[in-house]
Write a structure and sequence with these properties.
0% strand; 6 helices; mainly alpha; elongated
Length: 117
Amino acid sequence: MRKSLSNLPRLVALGSLTLLICLCLAWELWLAPLRPGGSWLALKALPLALPLTGVLLGKRYTYQWASMLILAYFAEGVTRAWAESGLSRTLAWLEITLALAFFAAAVSFARLTRAGA
């Protein structure tokens, strides 16, 4: 029963993490880069690729540390939603939403798969 309960958080975490990587790249390279033609800020997607394999394989430890990593993207989204306007503000709100979805899914997965559960 627990195995089937942990599938939904895994799917949400994997989907939100993948979409967040795509959003970070598209935002800084094409949609609303800081400089015309793209910016080096696109490299912010690189740390998000680190937990991708562990999330895909359902490794509990990866979910635990990735839930802390994702908070930096939440903070960036909040900062840019506050400071920017237009398309960048919309993208920032999308980043906030995806970061929160990943965080909630990661915490849920970690809870559902703990040893005493």
